[in-house]
Amino acid sequence: MGMGETQAVRRIGLLGGTFDPIHYGHLVIAEEVRATLALSEVVFIPAGQPPHKPGRPVTPAQHRLAMLQLAIASNPAFSLCEIEIERPGPSYTVDTLRLLRQRWGSQAYLAFILGADSLAEFTSWYNAAGVLAQLDCLVAVGRPGYRPPQELVTALEERLPGIGERLRVVNAPYLSISASDLRRRVAEGRPIKYQTPESVEAYIAQHQLYREPMPREPAEGRSSYVQDAHAS
Question: Fewer CB within 10 Å, N- or C-terminus of the chain?
Answer without folding.
Answer: N
